[in-house]
Amino acid sequence: MTVKEKIIRKSIKAIEVELKKVNYIMKANPIIDIINLEAETIETAKKMPPFKAIKYLKERIKKRNELLALAKKQTNSVKLIEKKVKLGRELNDLQNELYLIVVRAGG
After folding, report:
1. What percent of the chain has pLDDT over 70?
2. Separation of alpha carbons 104 and 98, rounded Å
3. What is the DSSP letter of 106?
4. pLDDT, position 106
5. Could you list the residue range(s) of the whole structural domain that residue 52 is in?
6. pTM listed for this prediction
7. I want to staple 70 with a disulfide (CB 3.0 to 4.6 A). Which of 25, 30, 52, 63 is the partner?
């Protein structure tokens, strides 16, 4: 395997990971998850002793903030789509280049 082939394979893996992240952001439904999380949190916290409930609520607030951050990332869907298209093109170019390397190498 040549250095060029190694670099292309590594780049392909990196782009595939980035594409998965973009797809996850685009497909996620954080607002519904936040609503469900809060309803579940209220019901569960009511049944707990106060000190356990405080700790539990802190954990749930952290999860809620993560979901809010995801929702914020979704607000600029045009930018996400542009990024997905750009990554798709780069991935396609690298796969074509890798194909040519493999064919030239006889394998």
Report:
1. 99
2. 10
3. T
4. 79
5. 3-105
6. 0.74
7. 30
Cβ-in-10-Å burial (0-12, 13-18, 19+) of 15 comes to: buried
Q: Please count the structural domains in the chain.
A: 1
Separation of alpha carbons 30 and 68, rounded Å: 7
| Amino acid present at 28 | A
The mean pLDDT value of the chain amounts to 93
Ordered DSSP codes for 9-20 = HHHHHHHHHHHH
pLDDT in tens, 21-50: 999 999 999 999 999 999 999 899 889 998
**How far is the C-alpha of 56 from the C-alpha of 30, rounded, in Å?**
20
E strand or H helix that includes residue 86: helix 77-105
